Amino acid sequence: MKKLLLASVGMGVLALAATSANAADIIRHRAPPPVTVVAPPYNWTGFYVGINGGGGFGHSDINNGFGSSGLDVSGGLVGGTLGYNYQTGPWVFGIEGDGGWSGIQGSTNGVACPTGSCSVNNNWLATVRGRVGYAYDRFLPYITGGAAFGDIDMTPAGLTGNSDTKVGWTVGGGIEAALSGPWTAKLEYLYVDLGDASCSAANCGVATTTSFNANIVRAGINYRF
Fold it and tell me: Which of 28, 36, 140, 195 has the greatest CB tally within 10 Å of its CB?
């Protein structure tokens, strides 16, 4: 009986040792935890090109020796963009130029129109602006401002009229978002003031000045290098 008891205890000890060895072996061969891959922050530094399009609405004043007439102007725009960004920390500094076709126009029958009606057209518009933004990884809100270039075409009905190229100013802001790969998209607002254009009495019936300003809302797609 004593031998049987000792044999049972011995077998129990061996079984416990084997179980502990197997458990230790399982622990030693457990797979390592998965590695979490964190994407690096988006970097806005570099050159880019793009296209943009939208619309504008604003106001013109026609003035001559007989009085002043105001008119509203509106129309679409489409053009191209070229720019460069430099990012330091979350701050992004850049310069951007754009230009293209403009269909912003309007007409009036005001007292400043010697032949009864006048039309004002902006046929092309370009800007060169600085940009300052604060990056939230793949989103970039920014403010912008600089010089604006465009024509002011004023034509009284039945007369030659005149188209005058002007240099003015612009200010605005927007937000740009990184899409897939090198592509980004933006939504932007600009206020543009081209100042006053002159038309001689020979072309407009009486010496006339015409102002032009517009609110521009547009979207764009850029490709970054």
Answer: 140
CB atoms within 10 A of CB 47: 13
Judge whether 185 lies within some domain. yes
CATH of residue 216: 2.40.160.20
Q: Would residue 7 be called left, alpha or beta, if left means φ above 0 and alpha means ψ between -120 and 50 degrees?
A: alpha
Tens digit of each residue's pLDDT (9 = 90 or more) over 3-29: 444 445 445 444 444 555 554 455 555
SS3 3: helix
What's the pTM value of the predicted model, to 2 decimals? 0.82
The token duo for 154 is 């004023």
What separation in angstroms does the CA of 9 have from each of 4, 16, 18? 9, 11, 14
| Cα separations in angstroms, 200 against 111, 152, 178, 209 | 17, 14, 50, 9
Instruction: Classify residue 11: in a domain, yes or no.
Output: no
Q: Which domain holds residue 153?
A: 46-224
In the chain, the amino acid numbered 25 is D
Note the pLDDT tens digit of each residue in 180-190. Answer: 999 999 999 99
Are 170 and 192 spatial neighbours (Cβ–Cβ below 8 Å)? yes
Where would I find the H helices in 84-134? none
Cα distances (angstroms) measured from residue 224 to each of 43, 132, 137, 180: 11, 17, 16, 11
Structure tokens at 208: 């006339």
> In angstroms, rounded to a whole number, what is the distance separating the alpha carbons of residues 165 and 148?
11
Structural domain total, the chain:
1
Residue 10 included in any domain = no
Let me know if 141 is exposed, middle or buried by CB neighbors in 10 A (0-12, 13-18, 19+): middle
